[in-house]
């Protein structure tokens, strides 16, 4: 398969996965009658109709490696996207990154209000774990428990939220590359790694294969964040769907800040190549995941 054919296949697969996830999210977040309706409207606003769905795609594609039922995989993908959306809603709040634009539209706290946005983020997070724990997600309760435990570890104080705390206290400080690597591994990488591992958990994959999938997800997450930092430096509000140039303006600790754009770009490409190498044992079945690694560092938004 040529690079052009690989890119086209990945683009089609991403679209198909996004459509499946969007439909599932719509089903999992029905609008209620009653006074809590504005809360669910804000939840739906935050999670529906936008984003690359890369994390959800990772769940679906890694699950496919282990012949997991697509219905189960899509439910987990939707849960991951809810968790991710919650983090974006809270990131955009004035007390955090104070951003008025997300996915090309007003941030949740601008479209509604700060209190509703906080509650919408809280509710998206708890709904994600509820979905993972429901019997429809997997017939084996041990698998469901492992999914819940793994997502909690990836998103809590030793994962995404811990990374956000390090990011906040590091603003305006010069950090060494190993410290930035850890910050980004927690804030961004852990959820991407979980998204890859979730398919292996669903498929009850053996230890060596779990190890390879985890390595892929870890290095993919690192490459993704560096590429994101480069886009923040080079992109525009229109192309990114969010405010560009905020990292430098806020004195954020990034690899771009310490390495410069070209060295950071080379490092991201190395990480993407390293991620793809973890998939060697899966043969052609993992071609889309390899293409995703390349896309991660070459994307424009």
From TrEMBL:
It is an enzyme of class 2 (transferase). Pfam families: polyprenyl_synt. Its EC number is 2.5.1.10. The keyword Transferase applies. InterPro entries: Isoprenoid_synthase_dom_sf, Polyprenyl_synt, Polyprenyl_synt_CS, Prenyl_diphosphate_synthase. Keywords: Isoprene biosynthesis, Magnesium, Metal-binding, Transferase. One of its GO terms (cellular component) is cytoplasm. GO terms for molecular function: (2E,6E)-farnesyl diphosphate synthase activity; metal ion binding. Belongs to the FPP/GGPP synthase family. PANTHER family: FARNESYL DIPHOSPHATE SYNTHASE. This is Farnesyl-diphosphate synthase. It comes from Acidiphilium cryptum (strain JF-5).
